[in-house]
Sequence to fold (70 residues):
Amino acid sequence: MSSTGIEKRLTELEGRYAFLDDLVNQLDGVIVGQQRRIEELQAQLKHLHQLLDRAQAGESASGDERPPHY
Fold:
């Protein structure tokens, strides 16, 4: 292979590498954003579970009592 052929091939490989490097960086940003969103949703779900547990505990504690107007 001639010197110009090798240089052309090397230039093409460098271009592909630059494209792939940029793509990897973009995908990394997407993954970081998704991880943040997952953590937010997990925190919201935990909070909802706590609210549900409190509501159910309140029902069972006062479920057998007569309402105050009796």
Q: What stands out?
A: Helices lie at 3-62. Residues 1-57 form one domain.
